[in-house]
Amino acid sequence: MNKIAIYPGTFDPITFGHIDLIKKGIRIFDKVIVAVSDVDNKDYLFDSFERVEIIKKALFSDLKLSRKKINVIIFDSLTTDLCKKYKANIILRGLRAVSDFEYEFQLAGMNRKLNNKIETVFLMSDIENQIISSRFVKEIVKLKGDIKKFTTKSTIKLLKRKYEQVIN
């Protein structure tokens, strides 16, 4: 039986922290489905279709990761329903700091109550990527700072282009 993990998130934009978890995930699981949230409760810089394209460019063009082990999709449902749809029994989540733990612990508990056949697996990115957040990356690029330590070349290019559009 294939071990399929769903890695849900906003990925607005994808960072080396996210990518680190995806790389670790494809070593552990047969397939990782990167699930881009399209729920309206956040103010996104990129729409869900743009985020999918950014992720695909970062993973498959910039980093040459295997398309056989990674699928990138959009979803607007409960993560547990998404797991059922893709026959996945694992939700992959990342932890950066102790401050993430309480929220992630509650989320894992709620998902377990919704479907007790689904396990949440927590992974930590490598130490140099633990401080990275999409929010900080957007703030740095908005203020014309250097973000090459935080995300891929294609993502940087698209971020800069998006902020130039916002300004003009």
Question: What report would you give on this structure?
Answer:
- The model has no long low-confidence stretch (mean pLDDT about 95).
- The protein has a single domain (about 5-165), classed as Rossmann fold, CATH 3.40.50.
- It starts with a strand and ends with a helix.
- The chain is built from 6 helices and 5 strands.
- It is α/β, with parallel strands linked by helices and about 170 residues long.
- The chain is about 45% helix and about 20% strand.
List the helices and strands and how they pair.
Elements: E1 4-9, H1 16-28, E2 31-37, H2 48-62, E3 70-75, H3 79-85, E4 90-95, H4 98-114, E5 119-124, H5 134-142, H6 153-167
Helix pairs in contact: 2-6
Summary keywords:
168 residues, alpha/beta, Rossmann fold, five-stranded parallel β-sheet, 6 helices, 18% strand
| Structural class assignment | alpha/beta
- How many separate helices? 6
User: Any idea what the shape is?
Assistant: globular
* Domain tally: 1
- Fourth-level CATH superfamily: HUPs
Unreliable segments of 5+ consecutive residues = none
Second-tier CATH architecture: 3-Layer(aba) Sandwich
Radius of gyration: 16 Å
